[in-house]
Structure formats: structure tokens, C-alpha cells
Write a structure and sequence with these properties.
5-stranded antiparallel beta sheet; HK97 gp10 family phage protein; 165 residues; alpha+beta; elongated; 7 strands; two-stranded antiparallel ribbon; 16% strand
Length: 165
């Protein structure tokens, strides 16, 4: 069962993390308990993981904070269970729906004409177009990468807690 828990979070969206509940884990919980109990456990795990990722994103955006608008825009939706599985979304833009575009530019970098050729910091394209890597370049991906193992551990601890182990 521990191998399956590793996939409790398994997709990263472009501008946020979508933590997905693995169907096999849910099925094993449903086999042992009722569907209601299994869903309660899945929501509990995903809410806890979502809270951790929200904190990680807030810490990442705080490193390049200017006005604080991006920091304030970090949001987390409560875990939901649908026909497509269980999930909790962490992202940007609750108060400002346009914020995700700025987060996208800050996370991935930009150039004047939307072209990039090169891996160097502030590289120059062959036509003279310069690529900019802002202070927030790659911060959210780094936050996600540094929390992968912690998310697995959180899932294991939360399942044990919910099962009374």
C-alpha cells in the first residue's frame, strides 16, 4: 500500500499543484472500510497535503514579494471527490483572476517577442531578443520538488491517524 501512497499526489498543473487521490488507494480503503469512511480519509489526507503546499507556495512567493499581491493570491480549494478521483487544488488568483498570468511570467520567464533560445541567465536570442529570468524564476517548481517526500510522509501519517494506528 505504501507504493500506491506515493501517487496520492501525482500531477503538477502549470500554475499550481493539483494533488490527486490514487484510485487504487481509495479502492483498498473502500474494500476494508465503507465508501464513506474511505472518502473521509482521502479528503483528510488531501486537505492536509494541500495546506502544506499552500504554505510552501506562500514561502516561495515571499522570497520575491514586492506588493504582496501574489502572496495574497495563493489559494487552496478543499479536497473534493468526483468521478475522476479525489483532488485538492492549490493555485493563484482567488481575488484577482488575472494574477495567474503574472505568476506564469515570473515562474517561467519571458522575452519581448515570446521566443527563447538558450539556457543562460538573461540569454539573447539570435535575433537579439533577450530572455528575462525574474527573481521568482522557478521558485514554485522548486517548492513542489522540495516537498514531494514530505507529501508522501504526510499521506502516510494522516492515513494512520484516521485509522487510529
Amino acid at each position: 500500500m505504501h507504493k500506491n501512497l506515493a501517487t496520492t499526489w501525482n500531477r503538477v498543473m502549470l500554475m499550481g499543484v493539483e494533488i490527486i487521490g490514487e484510485d487504487e488507494v481509495l479502492q483498498k480503503l473502500e474494500d476494508k472500510f465503507s465508501k464513506t469512511k474511505a472518502n473521509k480519509i482521502a479528503r483528510s489526507v488531501l486537505n492536509k497535503q494541500g495546506d502544506e503546499m499552500k504554505e510552501a507556495f506562500e514561502a516561495a512567493t515571499a522570497t520575491y514579494m514586492d506588493t504582496g499581491a501574489t502572496f495574497d493570491a495563493v489559494t487552496k480549494q478543499p479536497a473534493r471527490i468526483t468521478g475522476n478521483g479525489a483532488f485538492s487544488k492549490v493555485g493563484f488568483g482567488n481575488h484577482d483572476p488575472q494574477r495567474w498570468m503574472l505568476v506564469h511570467l515570473n515562474e517561467l520567464g519571458y522575452s519581448a517577442h515570446g521566443v527563447f533560445n538558450g539556457n543562460n541567465t538573461n540569454a539573447t536570442h539570435s535575433d537579439g531578443t533577450r530572455f528575462y529570468r525574474p527573481r521568482g524564476f522557478g521558485k514554485l517548481q522548486a517548492a513542489y520538488d522540495s516537498h514531494k517526500d514530505q507529501l508522501l510522509q504526510t499521506a502516510q501519517e494522516e492515513i494512520k491517524k484516521e485509522l487510529g494506528l
